[in-house]
Amino acid sequence: MKKVLVLAVGLLVLCVSGAVFGSEGVLDNLDIEVSGTLDFYSQYIWRGFALDTDPVIQPGFSLSKYGFTLSWWGSFDVDNNDSLNSDESDVIIDYTKEFDNFSLSLGHTYYDFPGTGSYSREFYAGFALPDFFLSPSLTYYHDYGDEDNGGGDGDYLVLDVSKSFTVVDDPEITLDLGAHLAYNNELFIAGEGGDCLFSAGLTIPLKENLTFSPSINYSVPFGDLEDTNDGNQKERFYAGFSLGYAF
User: Fold this and answer.
1) Options 3.30.70.3180, 3.20.20.140, 2.40.50.100, 2.40.160.40; which CATH number does 2-246 get?
2) 184-194, pLDDT tens digit by residue?
3) Is there a contact between 36 and 61 (Cβ–Cβ < 8 Å)?
């Protein structure tokens, strides 16, 4: 029963937000950009942590104007084969300023974990070179959530790189490769560590404004994140797909 409900929620977010807010919807005259995703993954791996080893469905949508973006994102456990409760509902506010050769971002995320009554809060700042080789970006996150309420109370610094190659011209299908290297300073661990993530996938257009993106991913924790006396995480493969739309 939970599988059906979770899938229904995801489809509702994807379809209704597109129909209501899309190119012919109520926000058309306001020139507000609307985008959304509906993802399904075999596990939920976040910054090297296995938050759920069951399959998850993860819907989200965003509204953007004048460089500001307001987003909602959720993750819901499809099965209950492990003891982890990863249900999550996040609200993100972001401001990104585009310059000729780089961009700067500032934002805040409110994390809510309704199944546990826990929550956390996080500021971030990012710098990106989208037109440079491998499109590198560097982002610093500071979680200031109280640990007594489930907060992280730590820092996370991550370097992301990515590269896409066209493998089919018409319709254009791309091979998308990505990786990140991150440093974790007492974010949900007592010491210091980090993680590496490697991903490979495809972006396949299904129709105008709608894409299908399957991917495989490999997460590698290190330092205190993998220490059995601290983070106690391990290397994991996981796979899934993303449906994305934009208006």
Assistant:
1) 2.40.160.40
2) 999 999 999 99
3) yes
